[in-house]
Amino acid sequence: MMKINQPYFILNLSPWPILMSMNTFNLMISNLMMMNFKFNLMLLMNLFMIISISILWWRDIIRESTFQGNHNFYIMNLIKFSMILFIISEMFLFISFFWNFLHNSLAPSIELGLNWPPKNINFFNPLLIPLLNTIILLTSSFTITLTHLYLLNNSKKKTMIFMNLTIILSIYFLMLQMLEYKQATFTFSDSIFGSSFYMATGFHGLHVIIGTMFLIINLMRMLKLHFSYIHHISFELAAWYWHFIDIIWLFLYMTFYWWNN
């Protein structure tokens, strides 16, 4: 049988896409059920299944790229293009949050008393925790850029140092975000202001959690010597995603925090 020399490879049949889709749908249903019941076992089961499927799916992709060598430079370019499309779709999600905020802040309705923020809403001081979080994320963007630089220069020790520092900064950001939520004097149900604020910052926090998991997995792969200075696409995609999170936070800070004071 003649072997054809071409840059593609045929993916094996995988159960993870359909299982992930079904569990994501069930997660939405269980979230709706949780609004009527304090404890929802179905929600915990779906979260466990989604985490398990993610781990197994990641395992298969790592096997294809690192051990089977199927991710050549042509395939890597296709994966990068797919990541660009994913980031663009996420960008439009946050554009909808900004659109909602600017629409309601520039022309407050009569139900809000024509005020923005609405009366009796005591908002955060943008020069305290929000500013500190901004500095933390900007610093993490700098450290992950240094991580990439030292990875390209084949300096493993410095790569590991700055990768660990980036992860520590991301966890610190999440802790401060939780502290800010605990100190808030308004809730999600406090008019369009509360729902807009918590939806935007909450989804950003969720992206930070996902990005942190992405970085931790890449750190584990670095420890196992899966990356080289010419083949580290997983880390590159994680760095792109992290820069995207940083840029979104800058817009969140300028609109939701600075604009309201």
TrEMBL record:
Where is this chain primarily localised? membrane
Q: Where is the Heme-copper oxidase subunit III family profile domain?
A: 4-261
What GO cellular component term, any one, is given?
A: membrane
As one GO molecular function, the record gives:
cytochrome-c oxidase activity
Reply yes or no: does the keyword Lyase apply: no
**Could you list the residue ranges that cross the membrane?**
7-29, 41-58, 78-99, 127-152, 159-177, 197-219, 240-259
The protein's superkingdom reads Eukaryota
SUPFAM superfamilies reported in the protein's UniProt record: Cytochrome c oxidase subunit III-like
Membrane topology, as annotated, equals:
Multi-pass membrane protein
Keyword presence, S-adenosyl-L-methionine? no
Give the GO biological process terms.
mitochondrial electron transport, cytochrome c to oxygen
Intracellular or extracellular location(s): Membrane
Keywords assigned: Membrane, Mitochondrion, Translocase, Transmembrane, Transmembrane helix
Name the Pfam families on file.
COX3 (PF00510)
What does the sequence similarity comment in the record state about its family? Belongs to the cytochrome c oxidase subunit 3 family.
Main function: Component of the cytochrome c oxidase, the last enzyme in the mitochondrial electron transport chain which drives oxidative phosphorylation. The respiratory chain contains 3 multisubunit complexes succinate dehydrogenase (complex II, CII), ubiquinol-cytochrome c oxidoreductase (cytochrome b-c1 complex, complex III, CIII) and cytochrome c oxidase (complex IV, CIV), that cooperate to transfer electrons derived from NADH and succinate to molecular oxygen, creating an electrochemical gradient over the inner membrane that drives transmembrane transport and the ATP synthase.
Q: Identify this protein by name.
A: Cytochrome c oxidase subunit 3
Taxonomic placement: Eukaryota, Metazoa, Ecdysozoa, Arthropoda, Hexapoda
Q: Which gene encodes it?
A: cox3
